[in-house]
Each structure stands twice: as structure tokens, then as C-alpha cells.
Design a protein that fits this description.
With 327 residues, the chain is of the alpha/beta class. Helix content is 38%, strand content 14%.
């Protein structure tokens, strides 16, 4: 496993880490025993960083991480998120009293004294611009409740604004072969500010595994069903904002990148890791096989400049116009 600095936090994190939305819920049925086996496998393979949130399964994924990392708290780092258990548009959601309550609840579920990275969970830009939330997080950091803080953002505009806040040390972004807008403005600024970049949804909710057809269906409790068109939250969180059928067709148009890289999944992750600004990718998983498949991206060849140019042209000419929602 290779490790990269998480911005200026002082943490070195595995370049392939994992997100725990899928084992918490909203990705179909889960099995706790298999989830724990998968977490153990990731740790055995050198993964030392996991991302979660208080709303993933109403705390389920935080509790699973507590079990999997018991006795390993000093070497396994955890990022969690807050605010979406309340009304994200209400300033009271970001009050010191409320944020402390959520922080303490996460600490209790995680069975830890300090959260390594505490992230605001996709808040509206208006809340960020009001600014008081950053003062609250500064207090929690000074008290040792959190080691560092960051923001999970939806758009380039939100990310650029957050990078101007002195205490923000990391951004969590949606970035993948179908979602390349971040490259031109956000990446250079993050590099200048020495901010960590965590990449969520690197496989576009599974589109970039190449396993779906236009007729694929999902369980009612899976966000790929109930949020397919942005019915519950930002449409970009599901299939990168692409209409599902169009995304399936576009994935076929990228099948060539798997040549010499074993699979579309591994090639898609490798493309992201080829950007030095990225601290880590955090794909989801539900079982040991998926953990192993994602980790195999460590060993496949990087992309040539010619291949990168071809991919960028495909995005500009075939993909960009179909992405829905602000990004």
C-alpha cells in the first residue's frame, strides 16, 4: 500500500481507502458479519483510513468501524460527517450546542476520544458563507475533540470558498471519469493551500464497474433507485448526475481503458490516483470481494499522456452536456 499526506493534517493515509455509506445503508441489503470481514480485509491489506457519517444507517457504519478498529485506534484513522441529521438549511443546525451534540454522539459510537477528520456534510453555500460553523469547529479542535476538519462539497464554487477558510484542511469531492470539472480550478487551489482531497463516488455509483445494463434495477431502499433523478438529495450523488441509461452507454464508450488494466473498475480508480493532488479515493464496498477488487487498482499501469488526452476529450464531447445539477 502507498500512503499520501492528507493535506497539512499530519496524517498519512492509504491512497486507496474506503467509504462506508454502502455498509451503513441506502445501497441495498447489507450483512453485518460480511461487512466486518470486509473491513478486516481492508485493514490487513494496509488500509488505514475510513470515511463515514452519522447518518449512514443512523450510526450503523460508525458502530461497525468501532468494532473493526478496536485496539487499533492509534493507526486506523476515521473521518466522519455531520449536519444531515437535521435541516441543512436551518442555521440552528450549525449552532455550537447542536454540533457538540452530534460530535459527542459520533465519538460514542466510534468509541474514540478524538475524531481524526470531522466534515460538514454537504451544507448549502449560504451556510458556509455565513461562517459561524468554522468557529464552532475551531473550538472542538482546540479541545481535542477533533484533530482536523473539512467539508464535503458538491460544487467547485463551494470547494473554492472552503479553501479560503484558514481552518479547512481537507475537502471531500465527487470526482471520477464522468465528473472532471474539478481539475481546472479546484485542484490547483487545493495544491496551493496544501489541502487534502478525498474522492467519493469514484465509480459513479457503480456505472464505472461496467457491470450494469440499461435494464438493471435496484432495491427500493437503494439510493440508485430512490434518488435516481435527485428526488432526495443532490442528483450528483447518484450516477454522477447522469441519467442512468445514458451513463451505462457512456461506460461502454470507456471500455477501452481496461485494456492492460484488468477491469474497468481498476482502470477508473487508477485514473484518479494518477492525479498527485488526490490524497485518497474512498470507494464503497459491501463484501470482501469488492474490497479486493478495488485494492487491485494499486497494481495496474498508470495512464499515458495520450490516454489522458483521449479521456478528457471524451468527457468534454460526450459526457459533460448530460450531467444534471450544479457541480
Amino acid at each position: 500500500m502507498k500512503y499520501r499526506p492528507l493535506g497539512r493534517t499530519g496524517l498519512q493515509v492509504s491512497e486507496i481507502s474506503f467509504g462506508t455509506w454502502a455498509i451503513g445503508g441506502s445501497w441495498g441489503q447489507t450483512d453485518e458479519a460480511e461487512s466486518l470481514r470486509a473491513l478486516d480485509k481492508a485493514i490487513d491489506e494496509g488500509v488505514n483510513f475510513f470515511d463515514t457519517a452519522d447518518v449512514y444507517g443512523d450510526g450503523r457504519s460508525e458502530r461497525l468501524l468501532a468494532k473493526a478498529t478496536k485496539g487499533k485506534e492509534d493507526r486506523i484513522h476515521i473521518a466522519t460527517k455531520f449536519c444531515r441529521a437535521g435541516d441543512i438549511h436551518d442555521p440552528a443546525t450549525y449552532s455550537e450546542r447542536q454540533v457538540r451534540e452530534w460530535c459527542e454522539a459520533s465519538l460514542k459510537r466510534l468509541e474514540r476520544e478524538t475524531i481524526d477528520l470531522y466534515q460538514i456534510h454537504c451544507p448549502p453555500l449560504a451556510i458556509l458563507k455565513e461562517g459561524s460553523i468554522f468557529g464552532v469547529l475551531d473550538k472542538l479542535q482546540a479541545e481535542g475533540k477533533i484533530r482536523a476538519y473539512g467539508v464535503s462539497v458538491e460544487t467547485v464554487e463551494e470547494g473554492l470558498f472552503c479553501l479560503e477558510q484558514p481552518g479547512v484542511q481537507a475537502l471531500q469531492i465527487i470526482f471520477n471519469l464522468f465528473r472532471q470539472k474539478m481539475i481546472d480550478e479546484l485542484f490547483p487551489r487545493a495544491r496551493e493551500r496544501e489541502a487534502g482531497l478525498l474522492v467519493r463516488l469514484p465509480l459513479a455509483s457503480g456505472l464505472l464497474t461496467g457491470k450494469f445494463t440499461e435494464g438493471s434495477t435496484f432495491e427500493a431502499g437503494d439510493h440508485r433507485s430512490f434518488n435516481r433523478n435527485g428526488e432526495q438529495f443532490n442528483v450528483g450523488e447518484t450516477f454522477a448526475g447522469l441519467p442512468f441509461e445514458k451513463g451505462v452507454a457512456l461506460a461502454r464508450g470507456l471500455a477501452w481503458i481496461a485494456e492492460g488494466r484488468e477491469s474497468l473498475t481498476r482502470a477508473s480508480l487508477r485514473w484518479i490516483l494518477d492525479f498527485p493532488e488526490i490524497s485518497c479515493v474512498i470507494p464503497g464496498f459491501k463484501n470482501v470481494r469488492q474490497v479486493e477488487d478495488n485494492l487491485a487498482a494499486r497494481n495496474v499501469p498508470s495512464f499515458t499522456n495520450e490516454e489522458k488526452d483521449r479521456i478528457r476529450a471524451f468527457y468534454e464531447e460526450e459526457v459533460r452536456e448530460h450531467i444534471r445539477g450544479a457541480y
